[in-house]
Structure formats: C-alpha cells, structure tokens
Amino acid sequence: MSQAEGVNVKRRRVLIASTAAIGAAGVAAVATPFVRSWYPSAKAEAAGAAVVQDVSSVEEGQMIVVKYRGKPIFVVKRTEEMLATLESVTPLLLDPDSDASLQPEYTKNQGRSIEPGLLVVEGVCTHLGCAPNYRPDVGAADLGGNDWYGGFFCPCHGSKYDIAGRVYSGVPAPLNLPVPDYSISGTILTVGEA
Ligand code: FES
C-alpha cells in the first residue's frame, strides 16, 4: 500500500468512527442549524451590538442557534404540544417561576418568552458552561422516561431543563437558562435589544 493510500484508509476509519460516535450520542439527534444572521462588525459585536434574525423559515418544533456576544442563543419555535408541557413539568423543576433566574421582566411568565411560540434562551448550562443538547423527544428513556417532557440536556454532568429552559430539581445546574434581552417584530427577532 502506498503512503497516500495508507493515509486515506486511516482518514476513512476516523470518519467512520466519528460518524458512529455521533450516531450513538445523538439518540434524538435533532438537526440544529447554526444560522447566518445579520451580524454586526466585530467591533460593534464586542460592544454588544444586537443580532437580527428572520425566524420565518424556522419550522414548528425546530431549534436554530444564533450567536450573540460570543454565546450560542437557542431559538425554538415551540408547538402547542410543547406549550402544553409547561404546566405538567412544574413539580419537577427547581425554580418554575424563574424567581432566581437571569431574564428580562417582560419574559417573567411560564413560557419565559415574549411570544409563547418562540423561546429565546442562552445555550449555556448554568452549572459549568457546557452547551446543552436540544432534546424535544418527550418520554425519552435515557432522560427519565415519563418524567421527561422535552427540553435541553447537558451531557457534561447531566443537568436537565424543560422546554422553557427551566432547570430540573436534583441536577448540578443551579439556575434556569438565562434569557437575553430581545424583541420581535413580525418574524424578525433582534437579540440584544429590548
Ligand atoms: S456543565 Fe452542564 S451539567 Fe455541568
């Protein structure tokens, strides 16, 4: 085998291994596109300039991720079924009313949002800062079966959040996922501006 062939075989093995690992980890792997937003210049972004995103193409139940101040912002178009879980999951949550949560006053409601159908939260675990996975699959056996109403799961140390980013009791994370300042005008979401 030539040296080039050897490298190719090795590379193929690595790719296959990566694919298998992703398949195993992504039990409910949900395609989560990092979307291209209307980003400000690097200088303006450093100063905290707002990021604008048209959410008209986001499908029901889908999550996209936009970047704001270097952080991932999870944007989920919630379905009626998802909204219906917000009440049922309450007894399992540490801070269901978001009393200790970092979030704007105008999102102090059960769904922690301006519009019930659109969730906007920071995708940064409040334990040690890992990025939680989007796991909308209600009843997932690996996340507690009947006690899992769909939401976000942090693979680092097992913290769980509901579909409003509210943290479950008995997990390492101490707080709900923060909600950034944002506004919505029609289908235009502006993160970083109330
Ligand atoms: S960083 Fe998320 S559970 Fe520890």
Question: What fraction, in percent, of the residue positions are helical?
Answer: 10-25%
Number of domains: 2
Largest beta-sheet characterization:
3 strands, antiparallel
Provide the structure class. Answer: alpha+beta
CATH-level-2 architecture of the largest domain: 3-layer Sandwich
Query: What is the number of E strands?
Result: 9
| Beta strand % | 15-25%
- Annotated CATH homologous superfamily of the largest domain: Rieske [2Fe-2S] iron-sulphur domain
Distance between the termini: 62 Å
What is the averaged pLDDT score?
Answer: 85
Query: With helices defined by DSSP (H or I, 4 residues minimum), what is the helix count?
Result: 3
Query: Could you name the CATH topology of the largest domain?
Result: Rieske Iron-sulfur Protein
List unreliable stretches of 5+ residues: 1-29
The oligomeric state of the chains shown is single chain
Q: List cofactors, ions and other ligands.
A: FE2/S2 (inorganic) cluster
Q: What integer value in Å does the Rg equal?
A: 19 Å
Instruction: Please report the first level of CATH classification, the CATH class of the largest domain.
Output: Mainly Beta
What are the defining features of this structure?
194 residues, 2 domains, three-stranded antiparallel β-sheet, binds FE2/S2 (inorganic) cluster
How would you portray this structure in words?
The longest helix is centred in the first third of the chain and has 23 residues, at 3-25. This protein is an alpha+beta fold. The chain has helices at 3-25, 42-46, 80-88, and strands at 51-54, 63-68, 71-77, 118-122, 133-135, 151-153, 160-162, 182-185, 188-191. It has 3 helices and 9 strands. It is 19% helix and 20% strand. It folds into 2 domains: 1-27; 31-191, Rieske Iron-sulfur Protein (3-layer Sandwich).
